[in-house]
């Protein structure tokens, strides 16, 4: 598909499809395993991409969500948190800053890093 960007008039539809897939499966590693999902999200840019990742982080950090253990899912979620953080600037509203910080903080709290422990360090 190349590096061409979708027109803004079509971004809403792509964002809606990606968000509906997330809501349907409610399991990020499963969703990322779907072959067309990552290329679909690669089409997003600008506000549509930020809205998608905001929704993704809300879903994976919800109290009912299971802790993230899959390294690919962790990377994808942290990529979204970084994108939300990088979108902030000097004129960003305080509410936007608080929301991005809260989502990133909750993401770190929902992650399970036990798979990172080296066997020789276990007691």
Please outline the helices and strands:
Layout: H1 8-25, H2 28-33, H3 37-42, H4 46-60, H5 71-86, H6 94-110
Shape: globular
The proportion of residues forming helix, as a percent range, comes to 55-70%
Structural class: mainly alpha
Main beta sheet strand tally, sense and closure: none
The end-to-end distance, rounded to whole angstroms, is: 50 Å
Total strands: 0
Oligomer: single chain
Q: How many domains would you count in the coordinates?
A: 1
Polypeptide structure, described:
By secondary structure, this protein is mostly helical. The protein has one domain (9-111). Helices cover 63% and strands 0% of the residues. It is built from 6 helices and no strands. It has helices at 8-25, 28-33, 37-42, 46-60, 71-86, 94-110. The N and C termini lie far apart (50 Å). 20% of the residues are buried. The mean pLDDT is 87.
